[in-house]
Amino acid sequence: MVSIFYKYLSTGISFSGLSFEYLIAPSTVRAIVKDCCDKIWERLQPVYMGSDKMNEEDWINIGDKFYDRTNFPNVIGAVDGKHVRVVKPDNSGSKYFN
After folding, report:
1. Which of 17, 21, 75, 89 is within CB 3.0–4.6 Å of 13 for a Cys-Cys bond?
2. How far is CA 4 from the centre of its chain?
3. For the chain, which residues make up each domain, given as ranges?
4. What is the distance between the alpha carbons of residues 36 and 41, in angstroms, rounded to a whole number?
5. Are 28 and 19 in contact (CB under 8 A)?
6. What predicted TM-score, i.e. pTM, was given to this entire model?
7. What is the pLDDT of residue 83?
């Protein structure tokens, strides 16, 4: 059922939409997506976020730089491919053109 996980990530379709498309319960879709995310986290977390890789100060610096570039507080990164509608700040001109 990895196709459900990929479809969710690539399209942003809701769990109820996926449940209708695949003829399974929304709670099952939710469990599949959560399980896939957990498995990916288990495999990649030690490689990219191991305790010897970065300390708290590094994360704070990354968060500060991300805020300076995007104006999103308390965020350390973003994954490309998921469209999120954002209302541009007043008087920002074309800086936030989508």
Report:
1. 17
2. 16
3. 2-50
4. 9
5. yes
6. 0.55
7. 65
